Amino acid sequence: MNLHVTNHQLAVGSISLIGVSTSSMLQVGDTDQVMLYSMFDTPPESVIVGPLVPLPEPSTSAEANL
Amino acid sequence: MIPGVCGRTAHLGSLSIVNVSLSAVVQLGDHGNYTPRVRAIAVQRQVDHTLGGEAEFAAYPIFWRPFPNLSAPAVCLTKEQVCERIHVGSISVIGVGSSSLLQAGNGSCMQAESRIKHIRQFQAPLQAPAGPV
């Protein structure tokens, strides 16, 4: 695939942001390749209601996969 | 200029940042390869649990599950720079966090990874299991 880009004049007055958050970017310039991965896990089962117990130890199968 | 990186020149009037945290980078200039990674277990407990100990990354698959492949077709890119100048009057950011990037300049390759496990624990009395009547 052929892609031809013509960059003309670019002028921005001001940029005002609250935040640049997880795996994101704010760039004034050019980049050839960008890959931004983000995993955020908060499923319903991550809510634990009950007597407080320690968080789980790694299982043997989990350590084998590491 | 980094070899292979052909880009424009950024001109900033002012830059205001309050906080930079958790594998984040603020860069004024060019970069080649930038690969920030962050792993986090965020535990919110209703009450403190002094005997709970530390949480283990290895206990949760999210920390070793592979990312999907984002392979793109080969692109033959040609650029024509009519104006080699990007002008921004001012940038104002409160927070830059969690493997993110704020850059004024050019780059070659960026690959950011973020894996966050969020657990919420609420205290409740232990109930006896329901048995046969």
Please provide a written account of the structure.
The complex is a heterodimer of chains A (66) and B (133). Chain A is mainly beta and 66 residues long. Chain A contains 1 helix and 5 strands; from the N terminus they run E-E-E-E-E-H. The longest helix of chain A is centred in the C-terminal third of the chain and has 6 residues, at 60-65. Chain B is an all-beta fold and 133 residues long. Chain B is 0% helix and 51% strand. Chain B has strands at 9-20, 25-28, 31-34, 37-45, 76-81, 85-96, 101-104, 107-123. Classes of the chains: A mainly beta (66), B mainly beta (133). At the A-B interface, strand 1, strand 2, strand 3, strand 4 and strand 5 of A face strand 4, strand 5, strand 6, strand 7 and strand 8 of B.
Helix count of chain B? Answer: 0
How much of the sequence lies in strands of chain A comes to: over 45%
Tell me the span between the first and last alpha carbons of chain A. 38 Å
SS element count, helices of chain A: 1
Please tally the β strands of chain B and state the result: 8
The domain count of chain B comes to: 1
Helix content of chain B: under 10%
Secondary-structure element series of chain A: EEEEEH
What summary fits the major beta sheet of chain A? none
Structural class of chain A: mainly beta
Mean pLDDT of chain B: 84
Mean pLDDT of chain A: 81
> In one word, what is the shape of chain B?
elongated
Give the overall form of chain A.
elongated
Task: Summarize the largest interface: chains and residue counts.
Answer: A-B, 60 and 82 residues
How large, in whole angstroms, is the Cα Rg of chain A?
Answer: 22 Å
Please provide the count of β strands of chain A: 5
What ranges of chain B have pLDDT less than 50 throughout 5 or more consecutive residues? 1-5
Oligomeric state as shown: heterodimer
Distance between the termini of chain B: 79 Å
- How does the major sheet of chain B shape up? 3 strands, parallel
